[in-house]
Amino acid sequence: QVQLVESGGGLVQAGGSLRLSCAASGSIFSGNTMGWYRQAPGKQRDLVAAIFTGGTTNYLDSVKGRFTISRDNAKNMVYLQMNSLKPEDTAVYYCNFRGYRVTVFENYWGKGTLVTVSS
In the chain, what is the straight-line distance between the N-terminal and C-terminal CA atoms, in Å? Predict the structure, then answer.
């Protein structure tokens, strides 16, 4: 099992910045992907950004150039630096950890942290 705990959400004005952090603990395995998803009220949960163990990243088009995902493999941490925030970025942000433990695919979620961007 892998446990994920997010921190760093809050209320910010449009144009402001926030940094989300996610700490992974438990039975961590290598070759994983860590990422951030978000879910606004009444909408589906969407991938915001993901980063592979080797550092390759991918982003939701609407956050490219504004958000940066990074990870510290030694500390089992993943971060999301969010700049130039917009009201449409308001959502609950969830940390995700997934990958194959040998041949079995595992997928874990944090409880989420709320980001509210006021106009």
Answer: 40
